[in-house]
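agent: user wants the structure for EH-domain containing 4 from Peromyscus maniculatus bairdii. delegating to structure tool.
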Amino acid sequence: MFSWMGRQAGGRERSGGMDAVQTVTGGLRSLYQRKVLPLEEAYRFHEFHSPALEDADFENKPMILLVGQYSTGKTTFIRYLLEQDFPGMRIGPEPTTDSFIAVMYGETEGSTPGNALVVDPKKPFRKLSRFGNAFLNRFMCSQLPNQVLKSISIIDSPGILSGEKQRISRGYDFCQVLQWFAERVDRIILLFDAHKLDISDEFSEAIKAFRGQDDKIRVVLNKADQVDTQQLMRVYGALMWSLGKVINTPEVLRVYIGSFWAQPLQNTDNRRLFEAEAQDLFRDIQSLPQKAAVRKLNDLIKRARLAKVHAYIISYLKKEMPNMFGKENKKRELIYRLPEIYVQLQREYQISAGDFPEVKAMQEQLENYDFTKFHSLKPKLIEAVDNMLSNKISSLMSLISQEEMNMPTQMVQGGAFDGTTEGPFNQGYGEGAKEGADEEEWVVAKDKPVYDELFYTLSPINGKISGVNAKKEMVTSKLPNSVLGKIWKLADCDCDGMLDEEEFALAKHLIKIKLDGYELPNSLPPHLVPPSHRKSLPKAD
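agent: tool returned. relaying tokens verbatim.
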């Protein structure tokens, strides 16, 4: 095991979440600098793919990148999560956000321009300087003391243009910038307007820039309250069809449907759907701090595999070059044959085709290099990365699992996340098995007269019906036996294998809960216990 892991375990007691995160962060940084970085430097990985990682890349909070065409509600979405304005925020139907804005936590409210931001060693943006002043003049950091931003940072991007507007040059490579962010963020959220589902050429190119980051992508269909239920079904189908043309994955992307702003819904027919979708999205975002270490480890593994493949490609090109004459002709031939070289390397080193960089982009970049100046293959550098992937990673993964067990659960708090966690506006409050939780009267009592009539048709003996007779009635619900078995265990409060009239009424109520689309509780909540059985059951803590 790593020496730093031994020191951590023996030299001090675990002192909470921050120490745990720093320990894992130190391990990741150490692995990268000792194992992966030498391989990257030897074969010019940083010139072809991605700049070297710095300390801030390992230490930064989870980041969310918002991408979408103009007026899809990206900036409003951030305002909705934070429940306050932030410096540089502009909202309107026209393309208002013309800059990349990193919204981050700060003790005082203010903003930092891009040129100053990329020289700050505490921020993970230093390598963005390579995109030049045209980009840096359109990049800024907004800092404000907001509870949400203590756990995550959010990157707002310029609205992607469509039609004639997309032909206007931004002055920097927009897709390259998106790709840089995509490699470093924890979540990429693509926002769509229910009234504007067309994916422009620039948006299509932007989505393609996220190649290899598919696990980070989530889709939000915003402003869904502006269409009725029938239109919403058509809009959703059209969106999935459009996405299928630009995202080449066999899995269906997760799409969250709703209206993400703090204004009344224009169409309330789908309110319950919107609330459930918002809660699902909130849970996904809230889990990011807890999954941050695993995400960074996963990104390091992907980077190491790409660095290995890149080394094989570069060293092969070096090996094939002649010593004296015909170098330019050979270079052109090798670039042309690059797809064949990929296949050859896949067979020789047993590498998956998915680990190789995109052929066309690689061919374009190779045009600018002298292959004779490339390095030959250095087996020791490859072995170091292989050893890391096969041995060190598993040890670090075990450490992450240990730390997660010993550290308090990290969840994003504040802003919109607090509005639905407690009280009657929590999702599911007063619904399903939670119905009647704050009422004095037994919630089953209102339907008990109907259930009593059924009960007395099932030949009760001494006020109880047998399991056989109860089953005859319960199977009419057409629920599977596994569900009915759970309902029986919940309803048979005294575990005597029979049901009295209150227990039978409870069983029918639980069946109704399941048929209405709600989940059954694992144990019977106190408010559902039949009145005549409450004394016999132990009180809840």
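agent: one observation worth passing along. Residues 1-21 have pLDDT under 50 and may be disordered.
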